[in-house]
Amino acid sequence: MGERLRPLTLEKPKPLLLVGGRPLIHYALMMLRQAGVTEVVINLHYMGEAIRAALGDGTAFGIKITYAPEPKLLNTGGPLVALKDFFAGETFWVVNSDSILDFDLRAMVDFHRRNRALATLALTEEPANRRYSRIEVDRQGRVRRIHLLTREAVLAESREFRCEDVSAQPGTESDARAGNGEAREELLPRMFCGLSLCESGLIRYAPQREAFGLVSHLLAPLVARGEAIYGYTFNGFFRTVDDLESYEALKEEFAYDPPQLSYLKQD
Predict the structure, then answer these.
(1) pLDDT tens digits, residue range 79-92?
(2) Nearest-5° angle of CA 37, CA 231, CA 221?
(3) Is 265 part of a structural domain of the chain?
(4) Are residues 79 and 67 in the same domain?
(5) Pairing, β 99-102 against β 92-95
(6) Looking at the structure, do residues 49 and 107 belong to the same domain, yes or no?
């Protein structure tokens, strides 16, 4: 809904806000195209028809776009179940449309396959302001603990919520080490960048509810069970739009010191 970007999002959905002369969602699509992705499905809810009209069938990006309207919001995980036939047993990406990233996705694929991961999260070093949920990985990149902040905590930039039930609402802590008796070791704090690579088998672990969070209700319980959930830490470009302040800062950056994004060089 882009509530923290109002009044801009009263007239335009968040993925279509302009940065560097392009809608935000263009960057995700061009990044995927460069990595060899040929088919994308975009879930729609708020002002969905505006997104469909702006992107069309994907010909302009060299990809095929399918649309999945959500009359009722399914959160970040629910669409995976609804689209399981679309994935048809293939490995797939899940990408947020409010962030701009640039790194070698093929290297992340290699990492994912080498570790036989069920899901791999794109991670960056944890920011100092701690406004985001925290993912902790071991030296091999395996996710060992997930700290999730409720939205209220993020807005207040205050405290971290914890709950013993890792399948509950966001605000939980999932600790795989405590659950499986592994020796304690140093964990590296990271931030999730809204991009993940998943095996289709992940969907069979989905909770029995229509709407659920990808990280909070699906991945966190799997980490606690010791399943192969990994984090790929990259050093490339990453910016995300959270609110009006971060949006204005990103527009200014692109105006005065635009990043050299690899996938734009092809245009």
Answers:
(1) 888 888 888 889 99
(2) 105
(3) no
(4) no
(5) unpaired
(6) no
The alpha helices in the chain, defined as continuous H runs, are 24-34, 48-55, 78-82, 84-87, 105-114, 151-156, 176-180, 220-224, 244-256
pTM of the model as a whole: 0.82
Q: Residue 184: exposed, middle, or buried by beta-carbon count in 10 A (0-12, 13-18, 19+)? A: exposed
For the segment 219-261, what is each residue's pLDDT rounded down to a tens digit? 999 998 889 999 999 988 999 888 888 899 999 999 998 999 9
How far apart, in whole angstroms, are the C-alpha atoms of residue 265 and residue 267?
6
Q: What is the pLDDT of residue 127?
A: 62
Q: With 90 as the cut, is the pLDDT of residue 169 above it?
A: no
By DSSP bridging, strand 119-125 and strand 229-233 are: parallel
Cβ–Cβ under 8 Å, residues 123 and 196:
no
Q: Which domain holds residue 92?
A: 75-240
| Same domain flag for 97 and 226 | yes
**Do 8 and 100 belong to one domain?**
no
pLDDT for position 120: 96
Phi, psi of 126 (to 5 degrees): -65, 130
